[in-house]
Amino acid sequence: MTFSETLLEPWLLLLAGVVALAVVGLALAQRPWQALLTDSGLQHRWLAATVAVLLLWQLRAQAVDWLTLHLMFTALLTLVFKAPLALATNLIVNLSLVVLGRTAWPLLGVNILITGVVPALITVLVWRLVDRRLPDNLMVFLFVCGFFGAALATLGTGLAGLGLVMLGATDPEAIHLAREYALFLPLLMPSEAFITGMLLSILMVYHPSWVATFNDHRYIDTK
C-alpha cells in the first residue's frame, strides 16, 4: 500500500521523511553498490528485479482516493539481496512513481517508510530469528522467512499506514475509512506471503546462491 494523496499533517510528513531518509542513508552508507560493481551477475539480477517491481507496482487497486493497494515485494527483495539493496530498489521505485506523477513529492518519505523501511526491518528481524534461534532446516527457513515473514511484513506495513492516518489525518472521513481498511488486512497478507514464498522456493531450488540470506552449505550440503 502507498499513499497517493496528501492527507497527513505537514509535520508528520516531514517526520516520516526524516526517519525514512535516515534509515535509507544508513543502508546506503554500507556501500551496497560495491558488490554490484564487482559481481556482474548480481548487478543484472538486481537491475532486473528493480525494473520488475516498478512494473508490478503499476498493478494497483485504488481503494479510496488517497490510498493505493498493491504488492510490495520488499520482503522478497530483502531476503534475496539483503536490506541495503532492497531499500535502494524501494527508493528508486518510489522516486519513479513521483516522476511519473502517480504520487506527490511530499508523500515520498512516508511511502518509503511504510513500503520499504518497515517491511525490510520486519523481514530482517524474522531472518535473524531463524538464523540464530531455529534449527538449520530448509523448510523452516522457507516457511518462517518466506511465508510468515512476508505476511508479517505486510501486516506491519498496513498497521504503520493506519497508524499514520490515525495520528495525522486532517479529514475525519479518512480516519473512518482507515479503520474499515484495517478489517481487510488479513485478506491482503496471504497474497504477499504466497508470492514471496513461491518465488523464494524456486530460487532456493534452482539458484540457492542467488538468495543472499540463504546459506546453501549450511542448509543443504551438511544434510
Structure description:
- With 223 residues, the protein is mainly alpha-helical.
- It has a single domain (6-221), classed as Arp2/3 complex 21 kDa subunit ARPC3 (Orthogonal Bundle), CATH 1.10.1760.20.
- It has helices at residues 10-28, 33-38, 40-56, 74-81, 83-99, 108-133, 138-168, 172-182, 185-206, 216-221; strands at residues 2-3, 61-64, 67-69.
- Strands 1-3-2 form a three-stranded antiparallel β-sheet.
- Helix 3 (40-56) crosses helix 5 (83-99).
- The mean pLDDT is 90.
Helices and strands in order, then pairings?
Blueprint lengths: L1 E2 L6 H19 L4 H6 L1 H17 L4 E4 L2 E3 L4 H8 L1 H17 L8 H26 L4 H31 L3 H11 L2 H22 L9 H6 L2
Antiparallel strand pairs: 1-3, 2-3
